[in-house]
């Protein structure tokens, strides 16, 4: 895989262009984009840039972060606050993501998406109202470990960090074994449609989309 330098602006435009020319694989009225990456990667920032680029193309966009779908502290910390296996498999409420985010965007769905469910600071439900995403709209979901749950993404972008960069930029080193497990069990670079190297977040590089050459 050959990587070429690209700016965040051009990357967002490339992703938006790819999305804008796609059709939902599940036959629904909505496209779903996944931006997968460890918290040390600028996934939220890329999601926002892609959303802005799509809106300039006239598309309705809803950005959702998995950080708003954490399980309650009593479940997340059942085996302690620094258990990497619990972090990998038990912190994020994937059932709620299926039910509240992807379910409304299935064929015949209502389009009413819950933007978040749980506030980890208060350890209480956010009680946020569902947000309508009109037909033809695009969901952009960002967060870690996204590509191991069979979420129905139409486009998958993986933000890749070398082990050294991940270790340097991860604020909670106890979580590092969870990312090693993700690499071993899922191999996100192998299932993503585009891989972006972000060892230096000021200088991203990518290999283009899986079926086309890089354009840097």
Written overview of the protein:
The protein has one domain: Rossmann fold (3-Layer(aba) Sandwich), CATH 3.40.50.300. Helices cover 31% and strands 19% of the residues. Strands 1-11-10-9-2-8-3 form a seven-stranded mixed β-sheet. A two-stranded antiparallel ribbon has the order 4-7. Strands 5-6 form a two-stranded antiparallel sheet. It has eight helices and eleven strands. A hairpin with a 4-residue loop joins strand 5 and strand 6 (124-125). The longest helix has 14 residues, at 43-56. Keywords: Kinase, Transferase. It comes from Streptomyces showdoensis. One of its GO terms (molecular function) is kinase activity. This is Uridine kinase.
Task: Give a quick precis of the structure.
The protein is α/β, with parallel strands linked by helices. The protein has eight helices and eleven strands. It has a single domain, classed as P-loop containing nucleotide triphosphate hydrolases (Rossmann fold, 3-Layer(aba) Sandwich), CATH 3.40.50.300.
Let me know the number of strands. Answer: 11
Major sheet: 7 strands, mixed
Nearest-integer average pLDDT: 95
Tell me the domain tally.
1
Could you state the oligomeric state of the chains shown?
A: single chain
Strand order, sheet with most strands: 1-11-10-9-2-8-3
Radius of gyration: 17 Å
User: What distance separates the N and C termini?
Assistant: 14 Å
GO molecular function: kinase activity
Keywords: Kinase, Transferase
InterPro entries: P-loop_NTPase
Protein name: Uridine kinase
